[in-house]
Amino acid sequence: MKYGKDDYVVVEVEGKTHFGLAYAKGKLLKEDGMETHDQQTIEFKSSEMLANLGKTPKIGGKVYGQTIIIYLDDLAVGWPIKVDIFREIDDREKRCLIKAFKKAKEILEKHDAFGFASCLSKIQVKPNVSRMQGAYHSKTGQEGFEDILLLTPTDLTNVDELVYYILHESSHGVWFRQLPRDYRARWSSSFNKRNDINRYGETELQELADIVVEITKTGVRFKDMMKELKSENPDEHDAFKEVIAYVKKVHHIDTEEFESLALNKPDKFKELWPVVTDNPMFKIDVTEYAMKNVKEFFAESFSYFLLGRKLPKDVVKGCKATVKSLVKTYE
Ligand SMILES: [Zn+2]
Questions:
Q1: How far is the CA of 17 from the centre of ligand 1 (A)?
Q2: Which of 177, 250, 298, 317 sits between 20 and 30 A of 310, alpha carbons compared?
């Protein structure tokens, strides 16, 4: 069966059926997966093709069990390329989308962070099929940059939300196309710092147990200790909090009882105190989603920064430094 570049095809490879875009010879970019962050590329032989649906396949139905989502309209939004719409959209939704894209562009340009947009080969709006509200796919093909910015919002009429989604996905573009390598390393360490914070080593954790016992002896209650740690030593505060949760969960001992053990039976108290906090709890101070991986950490932080939303001090600092060092144009 024949196909051309950018035909939508259904293929069967190793017993599995896939629907997607034949973006190069023998290479299929899966349609499903665009909404997640791990969109797959499938290699296929032309003998493995079940159907060629052309460049604009019909929406809605299923072909060989594959749901076909297709292009319905495009929209000029003031970006270097038009936005392809793959869902039913009314005039009000169109106006909201245009407004949101214009606003997002304005914000990005103000921060010299719109350079990535020249790497975009597609901007797409598709139906929402999961919790994901979009995706950014970075790809360099033979003909140059072929990045795809995908939006899959549930609601197309909430402009503020749309602006945030666009900025989040754009931040992925900034990460791939405009962020100097050493800055990726900086963001990684900022992310890892948040991950490591509660992974207390054995020694540190045992020391903390001793500290807690000593402070308890002076008549200070856990509650007040927590308050003080929170301002004096947030890392210890978080570790202590995690220990209390651990003891409650594993030994069914509540805070009050644990506290009384610290005072009256310090040996028993130290016995219950975990050797390691094996629960790699993240310090969630940006968003929960930001803790998924460093790319999401950057995208959430940077889009929040662009929107002027509240962020931890070190993250704001990181964003400001990043803005100054962004590659302005990408070639
Ligand atoms: Zn993301």
A1: 27
A2: 177
Determine how β-strand 66-67 pairs with β-strand 62-63.
antiparallel
Q: What are 110-146's pLDDT values in tens digits?
A: 999 999 999 999 999 988 877 789 999 999 888 889 9
CA of 218 to the centre of ligand 1 (A): 48
Cα of 284 vs centre of ligand 1, distance in Å, is 16
Beta bridge partners of 140: 145
Q: What is the pLDDT of residues 6-51, one digit of tens each?
A: 898 999 999 998 888 898 899 998 876 554 445 688 999 989 999 9
| Tokens at 65, concatenated | 């069990």
Tell how far the Cα of 303 is from the centroid of ligand 1, in angstroms.
10
For residue 278, the CA-to-ligand 1 centroid distance in Å is 27
Q: Is 224 helix (H, G, I), strand (E, B) or coil?
A: helix
18 and 30 Cβ atoms separated by less than 8 Å: yes
Q: Would you kindly state where each structural domain of the chain is located, as residue ranges?
A: 7-67, 73-192+288-325, 198-279
